[in-house]
């Protein structure tokens, strides 16, 4: 059957980028990521420390970043998300599509309406507050199918250093919701999942010196 969209099958041996290159050469149609390409909890890549990307980023690494961003943006478009069965997300990290490299994409608005839209290479938290913050509703992850309730303690404010696709160094100062999203994504580069931070005995134990975010 004719399909405008080519689904990728990243778990079948070749790398995702091999597929993209091949499909584009054969069909001229740019592929997109769907939930099939997102690996789930239990897959070993999610627990690996991802590799730094050589700078400036290669064409291939830039393409990976763009695919991640495209998924996040598509997933927030109701019509596209419904058509392709995309779970909505605000960020995605390369290890989640089985590419163990330090690349993330985020696209969201914070509670004050400020937009954050970044493809970042080798992002690193270079400083953080002592004060913590947590999402009152808990966190979710495209790689974790079940809902795991509980407070996830994060730093309330962080400074992230990262590189853009031209290899230019960026410094982002982030607080509360934005800081939480970036910490979730950067954790993926270190093999950490959000529920690792939840208190197993008492998931809703109040967190000392922490700002509740959202409702
Ligand atoms: Zn996640």
Describe the protein.
There is one protein chain. By secondary structure, the chain is an alpha+beta fold. The chain has a single domain, classed as Peptide deformylase (Peptide Deformylase, Alpha-Beta Complex). It is built from four helices and eight strands; from the N terminus they run αααβββββββαβ. It has helices at 16-27, 59-75, 78-84, 176-189; strands spanning 91-93, 103-109, 115-128, 132-135, 154-155, 157-163, 169-175, 210-213. The strands form two sheets. Strands 1-2-3-6-7 form a five-stranded antiparallel beta sheet. It is globular and about 55 Å long. Residues 1-12 have low confidence and may be disordered. Bound molecules: zinc ion. Zinc ion binds at residues 141-143, 184, 188.
